[in-house]
Amino acid sequence: MSRSAHIFYKWLGFTLAVIVSGIGAILGWIEDVPLQNVIFYTAATFALILWGWHHWSVRWIYGPDAIALQNNKEGSIELSEGDEPADDGSGRLFLKNLIVDNKAIVIGLLLLLALFIIVSFSVDGFFTPANIFSSLVFAVFLALAIILNKYVIENKSAFIGITVLIGLFIMGSLIVDGFFSTINLKSMLVFASFLGLASLGQTLVVLLGGLDLSIPFVIGSANIMLMYLFGFDILPTWISVIIILFIGAAIGFINGVLSFRLQGQAIILTLGVGFAVAGGTQILTSIGTRYAGNVHGAVPGWLTNIAAMNGTTFGLGFPPLIVIWIVVAVLLIVAMRNTIYGRNLYALGGSRIASKRLSISERRYWVAVYTISGFIAALTGELLLGWSGSGFIGVGDPYLFMTLAAVVIGGTSLLGGWGSYGFTVIGVLVLQVLTSFLVGLGLDYEGQQFVFGLLIIPMVALYARSPHIRTQI
Amino acid sequence: MSVADVRQSSSSSNTYLLVPILLFFALLVIAVLGGPSLISSAGIGSAIIVAAPLILATYALTVIAMAGRVGVDLSIGPLIGFLNVGMIQLYAADVITTPFDFFAYAIAVGVAYQLLMGLIIVFVRVQPIIVALSGFLALVGLNLVILPRPGGVAPEWLMPWGLGETILSPVLAILVLATIAWYFLTRTAFFGHLRLMGSDERTAFTSGIRINIVRLGAHVVAGVYAALAAITFTALISSGDPTQGTTYTLMAVTALVLGGTSLTGGRGSIIGSLLGALNIYLITFVLSTFSFGMVQSFVTEVAYGVVLVISLLLTLILPRLPDRIRGISPVAFFVILGVVSLGVILHAKDDIVAPVSAPDSSGLTVLGADAGSSSGLTVLGAEPSSDSGLTVLGADSGLTVLGGETSAVGQSTAGGTALVISAVIIAVVLYLLYLLYRHVSASLVAFIGVLILLVLGVTLYDRIGPAISVKDSAAGASVHEAYAPPPNIFHYEVVESRAQTSGAAIFGPGASVLASPLANWVLVIVGAILVGTLLIVVAVHRVDTRIRNTTLAFYLALAAAVAAVIVFAGDGYGEFSSVFFVEAFAAIVVGALLFIVTLPPVQSRIGNFPLVMFALLSATALGAMYFAGGPDIATAIPAAPAPSAAEGFSGVASAPAAPVDVRSVIFPDAFYVEVFWIVLATAALFLVSLPRVWARVLRYISFDKGVKALSYTGVFIVIFSIATLAALFYAAEVPLWKLGVAVVSAIIGARFVWHFLRHYRRIGAPGFGFTGDGEPQSVREMLGVGR
């Protein structure tokens, strides 16, 4: 693609960043958020969008040539654009071509407009400024996404995820009252942190081609076991937390060892281990009490502060949980890309045989990812205890399929070897924003699940279709 | 797909059936001991109705899992719930009312849903697990929208289905039809294509199979089964429930894995799935018989998890076992374990010991013993609990010990019988497993045939119930006031007392005269054959020392077990005897007898040794017929028509004078009889060790054509064994027509049993019928002629 497109997208991204961070700043100012918070968030949003836009747009436009572009600066572009006749280096001409080249989309948009007009005339009360505006934004966004989609070659899933995320954000902000308030954003981030942490282990396991369904059970067990240990009052609370973490890691280790030779059926095996763990924990905590499966006690303040909605991080008005998640995510993403362990993990997921030739121990990595998964699941359970303040075995249940859904929507391949935790983060955010959006629309939990179920197939179908059998021979 | 998966899916599916079969019978035994109410018309009926939705859901999963691509349909549970709430709501709206409507609706919607999933998998080309996941989430939500909370009523005609009071119910019909339908499905080309596609989709594609059609077909079949599951589920709960159906997902997946179906595709069997689902039901049942109080549900959860993990690990271990064990036929395995557990069921049902306390202790014992049995097969030889019976060898026969040890009363707790019986059964099972592992051959075929007949004999036997004893005491004619239901024909003391009070009316005029000496004779003959065989095995040279030791060990264990049974059960009739004791004792003795009789031919290096045993066996059969049953019964039976006929015991029926048994005059003591038989056996041995003699005879009975000759030889072994046993039961007053039915069915069945078991020797050790290369021997080689 040409340099004109490059310029077009560059300025588009800049404009977008200004608009988004501007909206954020204005909203923060309106809602009487402390000034330093507004400045902090605005700067962070602006920088993140610019960075992400630069990073992704270069890749989207040039695909595999992106690295060559970055290395050779202008040189290789001249080579690749060769026979572009009408390129005078300006963005305006490109836009014109864009419309001409995408007649179908333009017609589609016009049809949407027609539909909108018909609905406006037939349904009373539909023709309100808010609806007009939201429809307009939605249409523009849709067109933009479809056009951009043509240029995306790598990381299509991330593109689609981000597109849906932004689209949902726009729609939510316009339709749902209070969607774009700081309190809602904060609560979304808190819930996303839980889901993100729970999905971390799942992502790693999936990268190797396995699945870990014991996560929700470990979460629930860690939740009530920690409360159980708190109830004893003989250990310092932080030691209890560490003990539970190690137990979680041990369960993950067992998962890994047992399922190593049963990789095709790891999904069922981990489910069985999860059953045993959850049941065993409940039996243990029920001994000597009159409340079967219920544990009562007091959660220490520092744990509550970490996870609860009104926690503070060095005086800033968000719980440290969010920071923990972001730090973990960034560390993991960087480590997966840049360390030998991360690369080996991808190698193993891609081809067992090739990895064996490279002397990469499959068993070691398989067991390690399950151990990490168990560890993180226990951590999530503990943080959930801090959030809720009371132990409950069923606290992990929603995570049974949600972690899987987050991984799948993010675009990590269930066959292993392709994906990243970054993708999962996108998937988590999509799910969370969608949940928030649906709640705002007044749907209950069942309705949300229904929508999730219907959403997954189209999302996956967009980027994770298997090749036809005749191409696999 | 990793290397391990390829290895798993490539091996025979039969091996994987062993685990569910073993688990099924273990659970069944524990369940029956813990809650005997399971084995009753209402118990089985409710078991059927409760297990039916799970079984059918597992069927549905099986066919999809076989299609490959790790296609576990997680949405099966919500689908059942969806069909359920749809049915209830449509019935409430009077849209569907008749059974036809219900079935049409369920099948149409179930198939439509599964077809939709199949189309998405085939044409959108998304991984099946993702499709199943989204279907799960969507349906769970949808169910609650259709029916927010449990409620509604099922139609009138569906209500009785869910009561589960009788065994024969429409639900059972649905189950049977579904299973038969699967059987016919396996006969089609579609099924072959399905298996091929499941194990290797690319090969299937290149072979010209239209894999899209096959995959869609698998989903359609699954939809039908899911619909049937939904109907039985509706019958079970008789209302609508949006959430209950969801629990079937995890249960059905567990059952699927328990049944040995590979999640990676290509391997799966309906029998395995059926057993897996039944196992899940039995686990729940067993756990409910223990009282865990408030942690009950948690214990169930743990049990699910642990069973799931262990059965998965077992499927991992099985392909790595030696070839021998992989050759074990599931049919043989099933038959053996089935016989054993049937014995336990009979015991648990009819044991009059102490129905309250006995099951608890014995149930726990079985558990403990089962756990310990994995450590090895040494339990067998040891049998340490019964020290008193170990002197059998020194004595002349096991039967003498039976009488002699009666006074040596051991522990006399109520659960004693159950405990001992359990121990014996476990020992026998272990030994059988050991034998299956070591060598599987004609002798085992014979043994299994005998066991089949034994079961038939036990079940067909006319029970002389408590009513009779009441009548006796009312008439004042009974010698044994406390003597309760079981007709202890094999019980030495009864035999003795009958022999002493020969002529006194116990069961009615005429019958008693007949019964006591006959039973005595039977016992004597059995003891003689045991001793004779033992002598031959131990004394004849060229018998492998290992075989000799094994025989001795088995003999010791058997005798010890028998003695222990006598000690515990022979003390007082009213308190300690049980029906199981009598018949299982007979079964053990006779089964072991015939087993030992047929054991030496298998491992002996003597070429024509089988024929020795043939001769002995057939001579025994004939002798038993003549001496024990023979003319006496022929004259006596018209007089005392059938033991169950009430007139026979009320003393009203006129009876002729008892015939005088002249043979008891000739052979007054058991010792002489034994000597006689031993001499006879030796003579027979001498006779048949002349190969030329028997080569001619065998030419007539076998068809002298390679494998065919061999297979017919096996059949003849079975038939001979059965004939012997028939004689014994004939002597024990089993009515002739029942015996005829049993023998005919056993003879017909023997051919099939042999057919099923025939492939053992191909991988077994060289021995009777086969050379070391696994090729069948010719008859000439078998006879040792021309070497």
Give a brief rundown of this model.
With 473 residues, chain A is mostly helical. Chain A has 20 helices and no strands. In chain A, helix 8 runs antiparallel to helix 20 and helix 10 runs antiparallel to helix 11.
Provide the descriptors you would attach to this structure in a database record.
heterodimer; A: 473 residues; mainly alpha; 20 helices; B: 787 residues; disordered N terminus
What does this structure look like?
The complex is a heterodimer of chains A (473) and B (787). Chain A is mostly helical and 473 residues long. Helix content of chain A is 75%, strand content 0%. Chain A is built from 20 helices and no strands. Chain A has helices at 3-30, 35-62, 66-72, 75-81, 91-101, 103-122, 129-151, 156-175, 182-207, 215-232, 237-259, 266-286, 301-307, 320-338, 340-350, 352-357, 362-388, 399-410, 421-441, 445-463. In chain A, helix 1 (3-30) crosses helix 5, helix 8 (156-175) runs parallel beside helix 19 (421-441) and helix 9 runs antiparallel to helix 17 (362-388). Chain A is globular. Residues 73-89 of chain A have low confidence and may be disordered. By secondary structure, chain B is mainly α. In chain B, 70% of the residues lie in helices and 0% in strands. Chain B has helices at residues 3-10, 14-34, 41-66, 76-92, 99-124, 128-146, 170-186, 189-199, 201-206, 211-237, 247-258, 270-289, 296-317, 323-326, 330-350, 357-373, 378-382, 398-404, 416-438, 442-460, 466-475, 492-500, 511-539, 545-569, 573-576, 579-603, 609-636, 647-650, 663-666, 670-688, 691-701, 706-731, 736-757, 760-763, 779-783. In chain B, helix 15 runs antiparallel to helix 26 (579-603) and helix 26 (579-603) packs antiparallel against helix 27 (609-636). The longest helix of chain B is centred in the last third of the chain and has 29 residues, at 511-539. Chain B starts with a helix and ends with a helix. In chain B, 55% of the residues are buried. The chains are: A mainly alpha (473), B mainly alpha (787). Chains A and B meet through helix 12, helix 18 and helix 20 of A and helix 1, helix 6, helix 9, helix 11 and helix 13 of B.
